[in-house]
Specification:
With 106 residues, this protein is of the alpha+beta class. It contains two helices and four strands, in the order αββββα. It starts with 6 loop residues before the first helix and ends with a helix.
């Protein structure tokens, strides 16, 4: 006998997982990683790809320079959106499959 999933449970888990993925994506895009080298202090933004760098200090003195790589930003954002889409479609598939299995038992 196969175990039947409850469609409501799958839907709730899917919403929670999607919300968690969205929070992780937002955190990965805005969380900075401070790197302190002897002559170059900067903060890198982005995961898995670094798309922005905020330079705050060099051997010449303090600076306030931002560098943005639009290609890395687009790739990074596409990665997180594609991951959320795969997660959402997977849970949607499981919910429909559970609903169909529940209807077949009745």
């Amino acid at each position: 006998m196969s175990r039947v999933l409850n469609p409501n449970t799958v839907s709730v888990v899917g919403v929670v997982a999607s919300a968690g993925w969205a929070v992780a994506a937002l955190a990965a895009m805005v969380w900075g990683k401070l790197l302190v080298w002897p002559d170059f202090v900067h903060t890198d933004y982005g995961f898995p790809l670094t798309f922005a760098t905020h330079t705050t200090d060099t051997f010449v003195g303090p600076v306030d320079k931002w560098s943005l790589d639009l290609g890395a930003f687009t790739t990074d954002l596409s990665f997180w959106i594609a991951g959320m889409l795969v997660l959402f479609v997977g849970f949607l598939y499981l919910a429909r499959r559970a609903a169909g299995a529940k209807a077949a038992i009745r």
